[in-house]
């Protein structure tokens, strides 16, 4: 018995990058209830690590300039170091709990992909179009730095960079709004001429 694989029409729905990101994150968050909390906490603590000593340095210098006694300055330094240690510990904890959860989410999507293949008609699996789809699915779930897991890691770092950008803009806006205008102007000139 021979099958004519060319007669089978396999319809493929095209998804945008945003739809894929939403699908992966929604699927990952649905299967692991702690993942959204750890994801957000890691973004916050990773972003805060970049700015925390900027504020602590200002607090300590202001304490010294105000003529505080040495024990008050030491107490301020100890409090700042304690806050820094707390942030470092929470950042390390959330980072260490995220990496294996990302891998687990990828493996669950692999499990769904395998089940889908096992439930399909065998004759459909041999068509060139289906083999292409199968290769794309392998590419999407085949490693730590690409596909599903890479998307989760990249979305975490992208969100963290957005938080850093907003925090930096807030700090500069409070410090001197003219700095923001100069940076925006330089950015526009860089975009136009380079």
Compact description:
With 194 residues, this protein is an all-alpha fold.
List the helices and strands and how they pair.
Layout: H1 17-31, H2 35-65, H3 70-119, H4 122-125, H5 128-141, H6 147-175, H7 177-193
Helix pairs in contact: 1-3, 2-3, 2-6, 3-6, 6-7
Give an account of the 3D structure.
The chain is an all-alpha fold and 194 residues long. The chain has one domain. 82% of the residues lie in helices and 0% in strands. The protein contains 7 helices and no strands. It has helices at residues 17-31, 35-65, 70-119, 122-125, 128-141, 147-175, 177-193. Helix 1 (17-31) packs across helix 3 (70-119), helix 3 runs antiparallel to helix 6 and helix 6 (147-175) crosses helix 7 (177-193). The protein is elongated, with a radius of gyration of 25 Å. The model is unreliable at 1-5 (pLDDT under 50).
The proportion of strand residues reads under 5%
Order of helices and strands: HHHHHHH
What number of structural domains do the residues give? 1
- Head-to-tail CA distance between termini: 63 Å
User: Mean pLDDT across all residues, rounded?
Assistant: 80
Structural class: mainly alpha
Number of helices: 7
Shape: elongated
Rg for CA atoms: 25 Å
Q: How would you characterize the largest beta sheet? A: none
Percent of residues in helices comes to over 70%
Can you count the beta strands?
A: 0
Low-confidence stretches: 1-5
């Amino acid at each position: 018995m021979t099958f004519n694989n060319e007669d089978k029409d396999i319809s493929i729905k095209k998804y945008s990058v945003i739809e894929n990101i939403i699908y992966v994150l929604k699927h990952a968050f649905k299967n692991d209830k702690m993942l959204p909390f750890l994801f957000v906490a890691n973004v916050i603590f990773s972003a805060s690590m970049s700015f925390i000593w900027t504020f602590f340095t200002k607090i300590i210098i202001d304490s010294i300039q105000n003529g505080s006694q040495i024990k008050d300055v030491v107490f301020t330094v100890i409090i700042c170091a304690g806050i820094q240690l707390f942030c470092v510990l929470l950042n390390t904890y959330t980072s260490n709990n995220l990496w294996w959860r990302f891998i687990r989410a990828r493996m669950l999507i692999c499990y769904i992909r395998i089940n889908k293949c096992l439930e399909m008609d065998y004759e459909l699996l041999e068509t060139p179009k289906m083999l292409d789809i199968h290769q794309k699915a392998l590419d999407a779930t085949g490693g730590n730095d690409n596909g599903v897991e890479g998307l989760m890691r990249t979305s975490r770092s992208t969100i963290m960079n957005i938080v850093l950008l907003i925090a930096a803009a807030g700090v500069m806006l409070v410090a001197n709004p003219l700095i923001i205008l100069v940076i925006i102007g330089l950015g526009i000139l860089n975009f136009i001429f380079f």
